[in-house]
Amino acid sequence: MxxxxxxxxxxxxxxxxxxxAVVIGSGAGGAVxxxxxxKAGMSVVILEAxxxxxxxxxxxxxxxxxxxxxxxxxxxxxxxxDLGVLQGRCVGGSTVVNGCVTFRTPDFVLEQxxxxxxxxxxxxxxxxxxxxEVEKNLSVHENQDYEINANSRIQIRGCDKLGISxxxxxxxxxxxxxxGHCLAGCKTxxxxxxxxxxxxxxxxxxxxxxxDTKVTKIHTEAGVAKGVSARTSDASGAVVADIKVNAAIVxxxxxxxxxxxxxxxxxxxxxxxxxxxxxACHPSSAVVAEFEEDIHPWRGALLGSYVDEYMHPxxxxxxxxxxxxxxxxxxxxxxxxxxxxxxxxMSKIKNYATMVTLIHDHNVGHIRLNAGKKxxxxxxxxxxxxxxxxxxxxxxxxxxxxxxxxxYLPTVSRTVLESESDLGPALDKLENEVHTLRMVSYHPQGTxxxxxxxxxxxxxxxxxxxxxxxxxxxxxxLFPSSIIVNPQITVYALSAYIADGITHDxxxxxx
Length: 511
Ligand SMILES: Cc1cc2nc3c(=O)[nH]c(=O)nc-3n(C[C@H](O)[C@H](O)[C@H](O)COP(=O)(O)OP(=O)(O)OC[C@H]3O[C@@H](n4cnc5c(N)ncnc54)[C@H](O)[C@@H]3O)c2cc1C
Hints:
InterPro entries: FAD/NAD-bd_sf (IPR036188), GMC_OxRdtase (IPR012132), GMC_OxRdtase_N (IPR000172), GMC_OxRtase_C (IPR007867). This protein is of the alpha+beta class. It has twelve helices and 21 strands. Flavin-adenine dinucleotide (FAD) binds next to α1, β4, β9, α7 and α12.
């Protein structure tokens, strides 16, 4: 067990703490930030809204673990209710429940950030040491043969038949036990999430972490950050303590939905009127195909390979990941029918393969407070809908080339393709309307846009808000555009980069 202060440990109703820095959120951005600041000799307090759940308590049952480890018990959706928006809410944040896939930010994305948003500091050369640092610390490696499961081998077979380019995924695991339960948390600590890496390292260096503690307000004075107020609640929701942290440096890393909400609640740093705007999320769907052979797609490493052929926006702007999934996810991602049709669908579950689509979407959504409640506004832009269809089409063709008997498209109403000739007519029928596709976002991003122009961006190129001195953001909300690939490495690298800027400035001031 880590030395983390939880609601059950707290005796005082009011607590006041002083620190050099307070970090809001203990996920990808928060954990790396806390470690780097503590390593530089700063006193650091981390406040995390979610519970501390040691891996020994993970039971490998996805519904139970969603309830325990995910935001809104896994039920967070957009306002229309046709997009599940998944985020972790626990010590370690989304890194505890993620699929371990790692990508560096693509060159063409960084180039766009330089050209359109004035982020001339974020070149591949400048970020390379940060990628290397986090990849080494998190045991990132290219999947070995034994980490390519039967589900991914189907994807590879189809790609090879069609001459389509694919690659092995990289993942942050150590001696993966290949149980396929990544999204329910890794019971054996092989996933190198923040829960088992940067958080314990930060604690060892003197940082303290309060779990069950939600920051409710960021305090500023004359345009300078001063600290935060937070509330610790027990599992029933009863308030146990009010905590105030006075700190010269405030870093918000509460994720792409909660960070803008906290800024809006605090009424700060919004002279650009961009707080909560420019939300993107890589809307994903899963194409399911039935084969003669047994696949057991939930067995083995969860994610083995991906199709990179269409990754560049000029070539399509999407990737397809060979992501295995269990019976529950498969029944959710496709319309399984009811009664006899449902039984028939489920009885063949071991013969299914799945492919996950990720598109390079435009930043058309926004997060706002509506009567004090969170509201996630996002619908696929008309400009992105053809990309979504192209991704579904490519996945279906790869499956048929691999020998699929039939393919299920992830539509709200049932769409079963008995052969490739059914594909065109089925896609032609799809209009960009609400509740057309079954979609989920694993990658919310972009609501606290980083950019050089303070009238168009909330956060400056060094991670500090344009409006408030010593108030930083270090999470996925920084991305000024969607990045197409799985984002954890980009978040870690940006957070590490911003942390070095903070410690360098501090050293200069103290000298
Ligand atoms: C199911 C799933 C699968 C994924 N798979 C992958 C993958 O394979 N590869 C990949 O690269 N990415 C993946 N991701 C995404 C990746 O994990 C995230 O992009 C990354 O963790 C985002 O980092 P963050 O710091 O922005 O937020 P998070 O890691 O989500 O951390 C934010 C933390 O802040 C806390 N918080 C929120 N509000 C407050 C508040 N007011 N006060 C205090 N604390 C607060 C939250 O509880 C949370 O713990 C996946 C995500 C999910 C949900």
